[in-house]
Design goal:
This protein is an alpha/beta fold. The protein has 3 domains: 2-180 and 286-379, P-loop containing nucleotide triphosphate hydrolases (Rossmann fold); 182-277, no CATH class; 384-426, no CATH class. It has helices at residues 40-52, 54-57, 156-159, 161-164, 166-169, 172-175, 183-196, 204-214, 249-268, 300-313, 326-329, 354-362, 365-369, 376-379, 384-402, 407-419, 421-426, and strands at residues 2-11, 14-20, 28-33, 74-82, 104-111, 117-122, 142-145, 223-228, 231-235, 241-243, 275-276, 279-283, 287-291, 317-322, 335-339, 350-351. Strands 7-13-14-3-15-16 form a 6-stranded mixed sheet, with helices on both faces. A 5-stranded antiparallel sheet has the order 2-1-4-5-6, covered by helices on one side. The protein has a 3-stranded antiparallel sheet with strand order 8-9-10. 39% of the residues are buried.
Amino acid sequence: MLIQEVKIESVRSINTCHWSIPRDKAKGWHVVIGDNGSGKTTFLRSIALALIGKLDAGGLRQSWSDWLTRGAKEGKIALRVSRNRDTDLVAASDSNSLGDPPQFGLKFARTERSEPQVGLEQLASDIDPHRHVWYGGQGWFCASYGPFRRFAGNDPRDEKLYHSMPRLARHLSLFDERIALTESLEWLKNLKFAKLEGRSDHNLFDDLVRFVNDSDFLPANVRLHDVSSRGVTFRDANDVDVDVMELSDGYRSILSMTFELVRQMSLSFEADALFDPQNGGTVTPEGVVLIDEVDAHLHPSWQRTVGRWFCKHFPNVQFIVSSHSPLVCQSASEGSIFVLPRSGSRGEGRMLEGDEFHRLVYGNILDAYGTEAFGSETAATRSEPSRKLHSRLAELNNKEIMKGLSTEERTEQVKLRAILPSAASSMG
C-alpha cells in the first residue's frame, strides 16, 4: 500500500489541505514543512487516523471535539491509496475484483444532543474500507512515530495495546509522547533466545544484526555487539561496550524506530520475506511510514543523510515526515516537499516545484533558508549583531576603495574578514 492523495478539511489548525503524488513517485522521502503551529503534526496524525479506522481509533482515547476546527460544523480526512496485489490481502469476496480502493476516510460531526459533542464517523465509500485497508489481513502496512522516540518509559496500561490492538499499536507514539517503543528490545532478546534454542526456522536474528552492522546505519563505526538476558550492547569505535540505554539521544531515536519498524513488519509479512536474500541490507516490504520531527535529536550530518539511508534500505516504503530542518529536505530528490500555510492564514499548502524545490534539495543551508518555504523571517538568516558586523565590514571595504584605511581600521577589517569569511569572499 502507498498513499496517493490526502484531503483534510477543518481539522484542528488545518482549514483545507490537499496533498497528492503520482503512483510512480509515491515511494521515497516526502517532507512536510511549515512554521510552528502550521499543522505538521496534525497532518501526520490525520493520515494515521484515517489508516487506523473508526473501530481501532477508540483506543487512542482522544476527544474528537479537540479535532474539529473551532466554528466548523464538520471536519473530514479522506485518503486514496494504491494496493499491492501481491501482499495487500482483502476480504475473500473482493480478492479478484479489487484494484486500488476508492477514496475512504473519516469525518468529525457534531451530534444532536442536549450537550453538543463531536463524534467520529466513517466517510461514505463505494467499498467499505473494512474490506481492504481496515481489514486487518496481511499487508496494508503502515506505521507512525512521534518525535519522542525512545526505548523506555511506557505506562503498563499502554503496553497492553501492543497485544490487544496490534494495528493501533503501530501508531501510538505519534498520538501520545508518553509512549515508548519498548517492545523492540524484548523482541530482539526473544529472537536471540529462539535461535540459541533452535526454535527458529529462519535467520531473522542474524539478518537483523547484519542489517544494523553492515548497512552504514550507525555513524562513528558503532556496532551491535551482543544481545543477552542482561540487555542489548553496542560497541563504539574505541572498542568500548555501551548498553543501548546509555547511547546518545540521536542513536536511541533512530535505533528504537528502526527496530520497531522491522518488528512491526515481521508481524505483517513472512519473516523470510523481510530481507532481500541477495542484499541483506535491504528490507523489501511495501508500506507507509509517518515520522513526526524526524530531525529531533539528530546531529546535522545525520539529518542530511537519514532520509537517503531509509530510502536505500527500505526502497519500497513511502516515508512521509515532518521537519524543521532544511537538511532533511536534501533527501527528497526521490520524493516531494510540501509546505503548509502559516497558522491563521486561509492557504491550502503547496508542493514545492522547480527552482524552489531544487534549492532545498541540491543547495546549501543558506540557499534553503533564502526561500519562502521556511518563512520570510528565516530568509533573514543573520542575527542583529551579525548584521551590524556585516554593515561595518561593508563600510570599511567602501572606505578602503574611496579613501584608504588607517592602521586601526585595517586591523579591524582583517579581524572582521576572519569572522565573516563568506562575506569577505563575496566581496572579492
